[in-house]
Every structure is written in structure tokens, then in C-alpha cells.
């Protein structure tokens, strides 16, 4: 293994915080990672890490080497991108990450058609609801819900996320259809709860145009949209869900959008996030394919909810 490869391993150890995590990512033994960092220190003639039994810390030299390793990784990435742009046919590995339901419903179908058109492109898709570190984990594109928090990354909005309040006919028969948000607050709800967001309040806009919210009676929470939808289908809870979670349930009459007269505030958007402004050819082509599949004017999933534009104050153009 050459100096460049060892520097990149060292950088991964620092960014991920452990030798074991690097070993797991690279599918190699932990001792191999430790050995390569030792060899890097020997070849440079300086100690980069102060190690204890359970942790490590950077030395002054190690901190400087991290900066150089980051610069080197950026240069290598740009070099690969420049070379790729000279290919007449896109090729190589495209690494993608997405939340689970987005990946299954809207990214995987694009992958299938994309690889028919560009068979020389290999694709790795990782479905994660956690916030992935795109740069240190080596992803080309991430598809995320909500605002971008890392200012070092490029974020491109793909589609608005509009919320609907869904309940099954059985739920409505059991509890009755609520007329006000205060009525809704008394009913059992199924909501999202993940590492970075927990939905316990339902925001809405009053007749005076003021944004406020109710506390929901959350009887079930999960970090997966399909599980939340399944709970709503059971008739034991209503669910405020983003429209992209809905498949054929409304069209089939299995779920009904309730409280349609209530005005809901703008939610987040679905964004494509990537490390550099100039995308490699294969990444740009794939992003274009995703945008075409989702729909550049109106998201494809909103077609599964008849008259959705007239619900919840959503008549405005996005």
C-alpha cells in the first residue's frame, strides 16, 4: 500500500472516530487498519495519534496531516472527475445514499432504467435514515428530506414535500371525522421519530394567517414511513405523512385525507446533495434521470392523491 492510500485510511480513522468502523467500511480486519496507520507514522517519521486502550487523539503533527489528507482527497476526486468527463460513455462506480422509502420507491426504479442505458456504470445504493457524511464516506449523491445543514455541500431542491393527514375509513367510523384541530389533538396518531427529528406537534395556519400547532396524542412512532402508513391502514391511528409516502392507498379508498379545510404550512423539500458544484458525467446524468422520473413541475406521487392541490391550502404553485 502506497503513501496516498495510507493517508486516506488515516483520514477515515479520524473522521469515523475508530479503527473498527474503517475496517467495517472497507471489509478488512481491524489489525490491517492499525498496521497501515503505523506504517504511515514510520514512513513520515512522526507520531500522528496518541492512542489509549479505548480511544485516540490527534497529535499536532496528526492535525496538520489531516488537513493535507483532506486536500489530497479533494484533488484526487477532481482528477477522477476531469478524466471521467472525457469518456464518451459514462462508466465507473456511482455511490448513492437515500432515506429508505425514497430509495425504494423513487431511486431504485431510476437505477434500473439508468443501467439499461449506461451498462458500464456500477451503482451502490445505501438506504440510511441517519445523516450520512457524504464526503468522508465517499458518496457521489445523497437524496435527503429537509434543509441542508452542511454549508460545504451543494444542495439542489427536487420537489416540495406537502403533508396530508390520512386516516382509514375504519378509523373515521370508530372515532368520527374531526372538525377542528382541537378535535384532532384528542385522537390517536402515528408519527415519525428518527435520530434528528421527532414529530409530536402538528403545525397549521389559523384563519388570521398565524402559524401555530397542536400537541398530538402519539400512540405509535417509527422512523420508517411505510410502518407509519401501515399503522394508519390498521384503523387504530391517523397519520400526518408527506405525500411521497402515499402509493395507491388513497386511490383505492384505503386511506382518506381528513381535515382538508385546514391550511398547513410549507414543509421541507426533497434535495439532491453532493460534494462539488461540477458533477461528474455519470452523476449529472443520473440526477437528470431522477428529476425526470419525479417530475420537474409536479411530483409524481401527488398524482396518487386526487385534487391534492385543492387541499390544505396547497393551491399555490411551488
CATH homologous group name of the largest domain: Periplasmic binding protein-like II
Fraction of helical residues: 25-40%
**Mean pLDDT, as a whole number?**
88
Report the order of strands and helices.
HHHEEHEHEEEEHHEEEEHEEEH
The gyration radius over C-alpha positions equals 24 Å
| Number of structural units classed as domains | 3
The CATH architecture of the largest domain can be given as 3-Layer(aba) Sandwich
* Span of the ends, CA to CA: 52 Å
Largest sheet: 5 strands, mixed
Write the CATH fold name of the largest domain.
D-Maltodextrin-Binding Protein, domain 2
Strand order within the widest beta sheet: 4-3-5-14-6
Keywords for this entry:
three-stranded antiparallel sheet, 318 residues, 14 strands, alpha/beta, D-Maltodextrin-Binding Protein, domain 2
Describe the structure in your own words:
A hairpin with a 4-residue loop joins strand 1 and strand 2 (about 55-60). The protein has three domains: about 5-85, Arc Repressor Mutant, subunit A (Orthogonal Bundle), CATH 1.10.10.10; about 90-160 and about 270-305, D-Maltodextrin-Binding Protein, domain 2 (3-Layer(aba) Sandwich); about 165-265, D-Maltodextrin-Binding Protein, domain 2 (3-Layer(aba) Sandwich). The protein contains nine helices and 14 strands. The chain is α/β, with parallel strands linked by helices and about 325 residues long. Helix 1 crosses helix 4 and helix 2 (about 20-25) packs across helix 3. The model has no long low-confidence stretch (mean pLDDT about 90). The protein has helices at about 5-15, 20-25, 30-45, 60-85, 100-115, 170-175, 180-185, 225-235, 280-295, and strands spanning about 50, 55-60, 90-100, 120-125, 140-145, 155-160, 165, 190, 200-205, 210-215, 215-220, 240, 255-260, 270-275.
